[in-house]
Amino acid sequence: MKVSIYRYNPDTDREPSMKEYEVDTQGKDLMVLDVLNLVKEQDPSMAYRRSCREGVCGSDGMNINGKNGLACITPLSEVAPGVKEGKKPLVLRPLPGLPVIRDLVVDMTMFYNQYEKVQPYLQNDTPAPAIERLQTPEDRAKLDGLYECILCACCSTSCPSFWWNPEKFLGPAALLQSYRFLADSRDEATEERLSRLDDPFSLFRCHGIMNCVSVCPKGLNPTRAIGHIRSMLLERGV
Amino acid sequence: MVTSVTSLGRNGLYDWLIQRVSAVVIAVYVIGMLGFLIAQPDLDYGTWSAFMGSVPMQIANTLLLFSVAAHTWIGLWSVTTDYLTSLTFGKAATSVRLVVQMAIALLLLVYLLWGLLMIWGGA
């Protein structure tokens, strides 16, 4: 099958280009990461990130035939019709909207900066009890669909609002985490958290186009979380 | 927290709410106007003039005017802050954005005043 990969080495290349490779998958429905490993054997200069190879670490987020996803858990048969059979090329590009360090490796600083802004940790100033802070099963259930995020950046880098304002709009990943702590019965900083989201950019740049939902490899729904935060702001504001 | 001097309410929630409320006003007006036009297949100037000159329609038109102005401002403000940025215009971005935003604001203000004159200027 044909594989077309975005190549860019800022030390030697004037501009990025797409390089074609021919890979023998023996008709198997390999994961995209397996194909990348085969390409790496042919051309060791090609750079990409990967670690756990089972969709847990979030390292190998990339743009696969136009859609962001994790290479390690995306089988060729799910990329696009005809890719597995070799009728269509597999096209791999770095996550859109972030600066490229080299080939498929992007600089995630802007993404992490936004994550840091939502203060993604439990804030509670009451003295800790002898055992852990307890939570009812109902309150714990509110965190389902929020805590599972692995910060792979597939969602934020598929969001046009994040492309245009990566320093002002927090992006779906950070907002999902923001709601994870707003929804936590043990967290006491709700008011401070909400007051930091009330401007026209941080949260309200979300226009609900749901690209984030369609690409999330963990099946999470940042748009719904953003809607919940908006409702909390509305309740607080009117 | 991002401070934004030129957004309408300088607050995301406020802008978001105005955008929704003004959209409802515009939608209700359009549906009502379509209803009137369908119910009046032989519309002549006299009927139209009497209809638009009635106090309920003067109020409805004023509401529509303010809704369109606010809705347009919030929408175009979003568009300018999305596309007229340093990504597209480099160092000139702030000047370009400011000039375009002021032009839009001025145009909307003219429309608003002109519209009010038409609605309430009377004959």
List keywords for this structure.
heterodimer; A: 238 residues; alpha+beta; Ubiquitin-like (UB roll); Fumarate Reductase Iron-sulfur Protein, Chain B, domain 2; five-stranded mixed sheet; two-stranded antiparallel sheet; 9 helices; B: 123 residues; mainly alpha; 3 helical TM bundles of succinate and fumarate reductases; 5 helices; 80% helix; 0% strand
- CATH homologous superfamily identity of the largest domain in chain A: Alpha-helical ferredoxin
CATH class of the largest domain in chain A reads Mainly Alpha
Class per helix and strand makeup of chain A? alpha+beta
In DSSP terms (H or I, runs of 4 or more residues), the helix count of chain A works out at: 9
Alpha plus pi helix count of chain B: 5
- Number of DSSP strand runs of chain A: 7
**Biggest interface, CB < 8 A:** A-B, 21 and 20 residues
The shape of chain B, in one word, is elongated
Largest beta sheet of chain A: what is the strand line-up? 2-1-5-3-4
Bulk shape of chain A: elongated
What about the largest sheet of chain B? none
The total strand number of chain B stands at 0
Q: H/E element string of chain A?
A: EEHEEHEEEHHHHHHH
Helix amount of chain B:
over 70%
CATH architecture of chain B: Up-down Bundle
Average residue pLDDT of chain B: 93
Termini gap of chain A: 58 Å
Proportion of residues in extended strands of chain B: under 5%
